[in-house]
Amino acid sequence: MSSASKEPQLSEQELRIAANQYGNELKAIASKIGELELQLDEHNLVIKTMSPMPEERKCFRLINGVMVERTVREVLPALKTNKEGISKTIEQLTTQYRSKDKEFSEFQQKNHIRIASA
């Protein structure tokens, strides 16, 4: 027996549900990537704005919903660290998206599924 014959055939409804799940997962990942890219742009703008300022200058930062007074010297390194973390997360999510998209394509080919355009 070949491995293909060992696998149970999915019904049309099960295939539709699985395809919808793949689509929803891809949309969720893409949405999160978009959200993080907006945060990354905001971080870049704030870093660009604060970089030429004197390190002793007061600034305010929102931490867990509480506005706290800090100096540029204290805030700028934290912003740069956060920016790096966001960038790494975007890279990981992009890799995850590509992997899930490839998996979905293989699923479509294996089950002879074509997604109809709206």
From TrEMBL:
One of its GO terms (molecular function) is unfolded protein binding. It holds the Pfam family Prefoldin_2. GO terms for cellular component: prefoldin complex. Gene3D superfamilies: 1.10.287.370. Signal peptide: none annotated. Keywords: Chaperone. InterPro entries: PFD2, PFD_beta-like, Prefoldin. One of its GO terms (biological process) is protein folding. Belongs to the prefoldin subunit beta family. This is Cochaperone prefoldin complex subunit. It comes from Coemansia erecta. The lineage of its organism: Eukaryota, Fungi, Fungi incertae sedis, Zoopagomycota, Kickxellomycotina. The gene is GIM4_2.
